[in-house]
Write a structure and sequence with these properties.
Blueprint lengths: L1 H4 L4 E5 L14 E2 L2 E2 H6 L3 E6 L4 H11 L4 E4 L13 H4 L7 E6 L14 H7 L20 H24 L3 E6 H8 L1 H10 L16 E5 L4 E5 L3 H10 L3 H5 L6 H6 L1 H12 L4 H7 L7 E3 L3 H4 L3 H5 L3 E6 L3 E6 L24 H8 L4 H9 L3 E2 L2
Parallel strand pairs: 1-4, 5-6, 6-7
Antiparallel strand pairs: 2-3, 4-13, 8-9, 9-10, 11-12
């Protein structure tokens, strides 16, 4: 999707009949279309091909002859059975950039297992460090491991494209949910690997910075972080707790981490004496970071979110007007790089692509449909 946002022509190969599994992920649906599917499939064209059939496999290879990149997320070894693995293709398509996205990598004891975000986040440690202190492990509210793996793949593909300008050769890229997730635990991984430290779950709190977390107010929740002593002193002053910043037990961050429970107890009591709106107003001119814990409604009413113009809208042939979160990155001040194309209906572009991109005749296309190698309405 990110590559499509940047202007690449994306061809989504789907199974005839059912298509992408996420077309059925709902509710919610809009019309008969999954909102989940529509949220991540803009700027893609859908073609339904059964490449288990010889005629369908020929279509895939004809498309590859005109393509720069192949992205696949089958179980490792599955595509080799039909000759669509990288080793089988690289001789005929030496410039092809081939990106595999799997649950656990292409080789190893777990490589043949199905991988989902939930499982990778559990095995890779994210659920171990997510959730209330002393409570059960929690899943992050969105499929963050899935999403970040896609972002890693996007960066790797772009790097391979740049390298191909220099070498003229393609590249095999191996991305997995597990490798992404282990990379994402970042400084917590380093703390364990070098100091043997396993923080477990701390709710919204931070392992190495205090205070840096959420606090309950008398009508909601907000977050505050102080990354240095000056910011901590400023927080204490504006909250009427200057005695905390004068206390040797809280004089620097190391001391505050050591005595976190005592400090946070005092801060929490003070926060609960006032409303979220009161503290937001009091902190407005302060240098330390802070903000409310927004509901989804409040997110899209936020002045800065509105200013950044983060919502795209398109007209879908079945679902009508559909809103999605648009590109996160602006280039030269422009966030919307081109007209957004709605997520495709299943097989919507099959006939068009075979005709316009591959030059197939109408009779050939109809024959392929009769053979069950392709599908379109």
């Amino acid at each position: 999707m990110v590559l499509g946002d940047l202007g690449a022509e994306i061809i989504k190969i789907e199974r005839p009949g059912s298509g992408d599994d996420t077309r059925a992920w709902g509710p919610p649906f809009q019309g008969n279309e999954s909102i989940y599917f529509m949220s991540v499939n803009r700027n893609k064209k859908s073609i339904c091909v059964d490449f288990k059939k010889e005629e369908g496999l020929k279509i895939i290879k004809d498309l590859l002859a005109k393509s720069d990149v192949l992205i696949e997320n089958y179980l490792p070894g599955k595509l080799a059975t039909v000759g669509l693995d990288y080793d089988s293709l690289k001789k005929d398509f030496p410039r092809l950039i081939y990106c595999s996205i799997s649950g656990f990598g292409q080789e190893g004891p777990s490589s043949k297992k199905a991988g989902y975000d939930l499982v990778a986040s559990a095995i890779g440690g994210l659920m171990h460090i997510t959730g209330p202190e002393g409570g059960d492990p929690c899943r992050v509210g969105v499929a963050i491991t899935d999403i970040t793996t896609g972002l890693y793949a996007h960066g790797a593909i772009m790097a391979a494209v740049i390298e191909r300008f220099q070498t003229g050769e393609g590249k095999y890229i191996d991305c997995s949910l597990l490798s992404t997730q282990v990379a994402l635990i970042s400084h917590l991984a380093a703390s364990y690997l070098n100091a043997g430290m396993d923080t477990g779950r701390l709710g919204t709190a931070h392992q190495s910075i205090v205070p840096y977390q959420g606090f309950k107010t008398n009508n909601g929740y907000m977050v505050v972080g102080t990354g240095n002593n000056r910011q901590f002193q400023e927080l204490c002053k504006v909250m009427g707790l200057k005695e905390l910043s004068d206390d040797v037990k809280f004089q620097d961050n190391s001391a505050r981490v050591k005595n976190r429970n005592e400090l946070l107890s005092v801060l929490q009591t003070r926060f609960e004496e006032e409303s979220t709106e009161h503290w937001l107003e009091k902190f407005d001119s302060c240098t330390f970071p802070f903000g409310p814990v927004n509901s989804l409604e409040a997110v899209f009413e936020d002045r800065q979110v509105r200013y950044l113009n983060l919502v795209d809208e398109f007209v879908h042939p079945n679902a009508g007007n559909v809103k999605v979160v648009g590109p996160a990155v602006a280039y030269n001040g422009q966030r919307k790089l081109r007209q957004t194309m709605p997520s495709p209906t299943i097989g919507e572009h099959t006939k068009q692509l075979l005709s316009e991109m591959l030059g197939y005749s109408g009779d050939k296309i109809e024959n392929l449909r009769q053979l069950g190698a392709i599908h379109f309405d």
